[in-house]
Records
---
Amino acid sequence: MDVGDRAALVTGASRGLGEQIARKLAARGARVALVARHEDELARVVDAIRSAGGVAHGIVADVGEKRAPHAIAAAAAALVGDVDLLVHNASTLGHVPLRPLLETDCEALEEALEINVVGPLRLTKLLAGPMVLRGRGLVVHVTSDASVAAYPGWGAYGASKAALDHMGRILGAELEGTGVRVVSVDPGEMRTRMHADAIPDADPATLLDPAVVADRILRLVGNVEELATGARVEASAYAAGSS
Amino acid sequence: MKPATWPRDTPLSERLLRVDPTGGRWTHHVVGDLPDLLRPGDLVIANDAATIPASLFGSTTVGERLEVRLATTSDESTWQAVLFGEGDWHTRTEDRAAPPPVVPGDTLQLGDGLDATIVAVDARSPRLVTLRFSLEGAALWTALHRYGRPVQYAYVRDWLATWHVQTAFASRPWAVEMPSAGRPITASLLASLRRSGVAIARLTHAAGLSSTGDPAIDHVLPFPERYEIPRETASALARARAEGKRIVAVGTTVVRALEGCASEHAGEVVPGRGTTDLHIGEGFVPRVVDGLLTGLHEEGTSHRGLLHAFASEPLLAGAWADAEARGYLAHEFGDHALVLRAA
């Protein structure tokens, strides 16, 4: 997908990977709606994009809140136009510090599912329908290797990301032939606040810069037609210089 | 015909009355039969406008209660709006109390942080005003979704929320009442229509208020409504028309946008934005549209009047009476009709 002159929506866009994806989409000519909970942080990113000549609008909302997606979809379409690229980047770890499942409050699991799985589906339902009418569009799920590997302590998050992955596969199968694609991408371990919350003593030198990962994801978006619909891929496959 | 009093959630099994104006016949189906009722090459055009929660309840600065219904906009912070007095949809609009009088400069409180200032009062009715919101951009859209509700209907059994009125393919929030003909069309139905060779295209039309209960305002409805026709839709139309394929509008709003555009461009549908206040009824000869998918609306309504451009009243009356006897349901959440020539 060529993102130039397209409208895109990125959740969790006020920092980390979401911020970098939004900035890079705007730099390539996309009109970007950025969604995040915190107004000040969001305004900082929106202002930076605009200062660089990009088109960006911030929508203050919590994707885990049941009524939020309707306002998000309406505001985005009103401000940036028909959304052709939806990036589900916002997510929550559940308990911080992480806890084993037997010590996880079930409410924390429910919250993780609400923000990481149900909220994205609510938004996809609103934005992928018009994509089907237009016969084009892309939904990107940002996932994690915790959806595949069994890391102790990552139960709520890992289970929610595994659900997201599988939802992506099924959506992909259901949208086969409509021109609307779904892809899940594992970004790898990044220097983000979320990673610091999960593993405070990680050596930063071993972690990826989210800006580098965002470049990889944009490369993936640019070549998404090569992938089977519903595919789950690793962003590292799109590292600069890799084929 | 009895109205459907609540949205149903199995749209493909809602009933579909197929009316053939050339043969003077009608037959009974369900929405899921649409791929069989249309032919490969037919071009179906839907209105992708999302419905704004255009009804806001609030008060004047001295505490008088009122309802504001947004009607048309020029820049998304400034709206033409209709005011209603105390009460809600449980009372028919024509029986609603008059709103408190307002003058330019008055402020209406419509939600926490959401105010509107009266900019002008229309000479045609003291209830028809221009107002400017205190918010703009994303903050205005989020506030409208927090405090607003979709325009309600007196025959519906409970408050409707935004999700009850959006079509499956609603995108930009332009409509102040739902473009309801598109309601039964799911993403799966769109896909199966395409698989059977039916072409699908879209436009955006700002469906306006259907009635206000104020004769002075209803007399001039519909207000000029904005629309946008994408380039790819104009091309698909030109192709289909050149090949003699049928053009099927999903709803009266699509008919108004296409015929309104054609009436201003010597019969051609050109891409881009426009506004139309075209009244379509008996005697109107459609230049673009061959037929439409529509809800079932009663004689005397503007919806029904528009159908006269496609089928004679005796045929419609006969088909409607038969549908009513068979238990079809009317209005925004009711059953459906496909009025389309067979050949």
---
Amino acid sequence: MSKVASTTLRDSLSVSLTVGAYGVAFGAAAVANGFTVLQSCLLSLLTFSGASQFAVIGVLGAGGSALSGIATASLLGVRNALYGVIMAPRLKVSGLTRVVAAQITIDESTAVALGQEPHGADAMRKGFWYTGIGVFVFWNLFTLAGALGAQAMGDIRAFGLDSAVPAAFLGLVWPRLTGKFERILAVGCALFAIAMTPILPAGLPIIATTFIAIAVGLKR
Amino acid sequence: MSTFWIATIGTSVIAFALKYSGHSVPERWLSHPKIQRINALIPIALLSALVAVQSFSEKSQLMIDQRLVGLSVAIIALFLNAPFPVVVLSAAVSSAAVYRWL
């Protein structure tokens, strides 16, 4: 194996393992929020997008409707469409291969692929496939482990799972708070959601913050 | 069909549709700078709202409990540049400790 190919493989594997391991947190959180082990595993297999998965279990766990959960998760999934736009001309695939490529188009596979840009188009394609498939395998295995573990726990608060979920959301949003503008938006939306919680039906205070994001995004 | 099943299947179908559409639409449709910018802001808004609601509410009621401790510990861990699993675990352990012993 050439030096470049082994670098790509190493990058892909390390990302796959570390990210895949977060699947434990998702599986445990899903069960803690009322999903069955089967539903938790199906979300990881079929939705396969961490932020969207955490969002739908978060909204339903807070008492929100299925529609609120689906809407919040889907809004977070829009970025995968944008990743698809970036990757499609580089992958040049069709038919069933495109279906598989679409399913593994997530933050990590796109990021590793773009990270291989200095090594050429072939390394980018390899980075995408290795990382996408690697994360998929580990994410699903760890989801099952986490879901079974949480099911065995009983009172999830005694194990801190009720705090693990918001901590996971915070860990997901933290790297995005790159500037003052982003941090103000984050705090503003958090305060807005808290203020609206006793007033609006569950789930809506979360989705409503989308309009804040759109409004400030259009104005800026 | 239960709410949880509808959410599981609905989320999965739309998630795939979004991914597949990205691979199928012409690049210019989604490459508008305003769309790109809004797309970067939406996760910040939704995830921040989720952090707040999951930390300070139970159904439609606001409440402060052991989760405040867990969240505070998570924030400290993030300021110390701790990796994601450490952030989640430290929040869980501190919250569980408060729940059990206070």
